[in-house]
Amino acid sequence: MPEKIPWPFNRFYDRCINQMFVKWFKCIATEIKDRKISGIILDIGTGPGRLPIEIAKQVVNAKVFGVDISEDMIKIAKRNAKNEGVYDRVEFNVGSAYNLCFEDNTVVLVLSTGLVHHLKEPKRAFDEIYRILKHRGEAWIYDGRKDCTKEELKETVKRFGIEKDLILPFWIIERIWPYMHIGYKTEDYILGKVGKAIRESKFKDYDLRIEGAYVRITLWKD
Ligand SMILES: C[S@@+](CC[C@H](N)C(=O)[O-])C[C@H]1O[C@@H](n2cnc3c(N)ncnc32)[C@H](O)[C@@H]1O
Asked: Which atom of ligand 1 is nearest the CA belonging to 73?
């Protein structure tokens, strides 16, 4: 699995994200707003920055950051923030999940969507997240399920309201989904590579939920 999405696919990726995932990111932002989470919120592996941008639009009492290992992605994220009118409310920086530029116990919420399957050393990243989180701070980690059923994929597409925005017809997506670099098989999150990394990390409290075509892992700092 390549760490970065190479040029020119990073630009293509931005187009896909723009069309396909923004509604999902809006839902995550609404959950943050409804739970009245305030303080520093960090999205790791932010890519084109669409999640922090949606949070900055909805959540007023938060300082939102996005980091990505790819300089190109950070340039795209900054441009997107400008175009969406939230440039002054969100900060994007080049940075690695293994070495985050935040003091210990300072971040209230860490997010990541589609990052975990890129990580060669997930335990190291989880421990780094643990370090920067405040006491009872949370991390919401989302990643794709390569082995979701056709029905689960269909339900997720419907829930996001993106049936008409798909860049390829659904019957093609459904066939190529298991071969796309969108995540791991479910078992890898539960017992395999990712599950093992969580259990070996400093986090003692976590929850894993299957939500259609992806998993949501919540980690709590004690
Ligand atoms: C599949 S993209 C997901 C982007 C965005 N979060 C989304 O959901 O559209 C994964 C991103 O993780 C970044 N990435 C990979 N390894 C990383 C690391 N060690 N630290 C920070 N970012 C990383 C890649 O550059 C890429 O932009």
From this structure: 27
List of long-range contacts for 148-151, beta carbons under 8 Å, 24+ apart: 148/177, 148/186, 148/212, 148/213, 148/214, 150/174
Ligand 1 centroid vs 100 CA: distance in angstroms? 14
**Which among 48, 46, 43, 45 is positioned nearest to 13, based on CA atoms?**
48
- Which residue's alpha carbon is nearest to atom 11 within ligand 1? 45
CA distance 77 to 93: 9
187 is written with which tokens? 């078992």
Cα separation of the two ends of the chain: 32
Q: Domains (ranges, CATH) in the chain?
A: 9-220 (3.40.50.150)
135-156: pLDDT as tens digits: 999 999 999 999 999 999 999 9
183 lines ligand 1 (CB under 6 A): no
